[in-house]
Amino acid sequence: MDTQAETPPKLRVIIGSAVLALFVVSLPYGIRHSMATFTPTDMPPAHSATSPLLEVLILSFPRPDVEASSKIMATTINSYLPYIDFNVTLSVFTHSTSHTAFADVRKVFASANVTFYTDTDEHPDHWSGQYLHIAEAFRWVIERPTHAEWVMLVEDDFPICGGDRGWDALKKVMQVLEARSPGQRVTTKRQGGFIGTGGRYGI
Question: Taken in order 71, 99, 105, 200, is the CA torsion positive or negative?
Fold first, then answer.
């Protein structure tokens, strides 16, 4: 004798109808997405032959789990690497002098086109936290002999999602930013955009 409770017939009909309705509603969107043609957007050119247009600046700070931190950071770096060229640079910055995962990942990408930098400046009169970390990162970028026109600041657990389409969305944002005249940038003193790059990573 089967002692397992069976799903009532009426409930089975309701569940089946709901699944079917969901499939029917989502079908046109799936077909449209699969048939849509992808036309890549051009990255705006740099203003100088010796300076890139964009620097992707990754901030990293130690986490308790060194192994997990290394995997997260490597995933983020790998997501940007295919798009690094003369017009786009990639840097990883930390304000911590005892960041084991940073040192480990730096060895892994030793031959890659990535700049790693550990800031050793001490600021005893300032609270050591995210604000100082960000301020020091921007200072490092600006004080370099050659720096990009734009800086894209991301945390080390925010990879660019969606592959080529995700990067294409970023290029669209860059086109909007570059559409403003240089004179307008000087007048407003600041200008930027926010891009949701992803940030989800599971171990």
Answer: positive
Q: Dihedral of CA 174/152/65/111: which sign?
A: positive
Q: Which pTM value belongs to this model?
A: 0.72
Q: Quick count: other Cβ atoms within 10 Å of Cβ 79? A: 21
Q: What is the spatial distance between Cα 39 and Cα 20, in angstroms, rounded to a whole number? A: 33
Q: What is the DSSP string of the chain?
A: ---SPPPPHHHHHHHHHHHHHHHHHHHHHHHHHHH----PPPPPPPSSSSS-SEEEEEE----S-HHHHHHHHHHHHHHHGGG-BTTEEEEEEES-S--HHHHHHHHHTTTSS-EEEE-----TTS--SHHHHHHHHHHHHHHSSS--SEEEEEETT-PBPSHHHHHHHHHHHHHHHHHS-HHHHHHHS--------B-----
Q: Which amino acid is at 152?
A: M
Place 133 in a pLDDT band, splitting at 50, 70 and 90.
Answer: confident
Percent of the chain with pLDDT over 90: 34
Name the token pair of 39.
């036309």
Calculate the alpha carbon distances from 112 to 18, 85, 108, 164, 192 in Å. Answer: 50, 12, 9, 20, 28
